[in-house]
Design goal:
- The chain has 6 helices and 7 strands.
- The relative contact order is 0.16.
- A 5-stranded mixed beta sheet has the order 5-4-3-6-7.
- It is about 45% helix and about 15% strand.
- By secondary structure, the chain is an alpha/beta fold.
Length: about 220
């Protein structure tokens, strides 16, 4: 009879230990491999969603600057702002500050929020000057008024002196408190206030020829 070869206790434990040690490694390496395709596809999904959103906006013709405002159809907030120091009319008279009554004063007004440090304000400024000279706008009795937002008076004065002043009234809102009452998102913004004090139209961002033609002028006609 052949004698059985004794088995070493160390040898008998070696195989199970090796097997138990290999399994966690396999599981650890397998999990990232399963997740990797999802991580690769995620940017493509996000890009596709954004592209679809932009395409929808383009096809619809919606103006992204025409953001809704909770104040549309509401009375304009009571506003009293001091004049911009040093600003004068062509005949040398001081340009008055901005005073808005929620009840209105019978005439429509276009309140434009601007600042000298605002680059888009410079872009829209020629359109404000053209509106101020437009006979149809003048016949409608529209006053163009400025709300100077968080600006240094000297810089605001230099801004209007260099580019021209389309405003019949300019109020200095150095702390930005009045702009908060108007629900301003940022500068520039423009509000059309009817003669009875209601806000009937708003433009967020710089005025454009399209915004004036398709938004402001029809709203002005309706306000009359």
């Amino acid at each position: 009879m052949s004698e059985a070869t004794p088995t070493s206790p160390d040898a008998s434990n070696a195989a199970p230990n090796a097997a138990s040690g290999a399994a966690p490694e396999a599981r650890a390496t397998a999990a990232p491999r399963r997740r990797r395709p999802l991580l690769v596809a995620l940017p493509l999904v996000v890009f596709g969603g954004l592209a679809a959103l932009f395409l929808t906006q383009l096809v619809s013709g919606h103006d992204p600057a025409a953001l809704p405002s909770a104040l549309i159809g509401q009375q304009a907030p009571a506003t009293t702002l001091p004049p911009l120091a040093g600003l004068r009319t062509p005949d040398g008279q001081p340009v008055p500050g901005l005073t808005v009554s929620p009840q209105g004063d019978g005439a429509p007004r276009l309140v434009n929020v601007f600042a000298s440090w605002c680059a888009p304000c410079r872009e829209e400024h020629p359109l404000l000057l053209a509106l101020a000279r437009d006979p149809a706008v003048q016949a409608a009795g529209l006053r163009i008024e400025g709300l100077n937002y968080k600006d240094k008076p000297a810089q605001a004065l230099a801004f209007l002196s260099a580019l021209g002043n389309p405003y019949v009234h300019v109020g200095a809102d150095e702390r930005g408190a009045a702009a908060i009452d108007w629900g301003v998102y940022g500068v520039p913004e423009t509000f059309l206030v009817a003669g009875d004090g209601r806000i009937v139209w708003k433009q967020t961002g710089p005025l454009t020829e399209r915004a004036i033609r398709e938004g402001l002028l029809p709203a002005l006609a309706g306000a009359r």
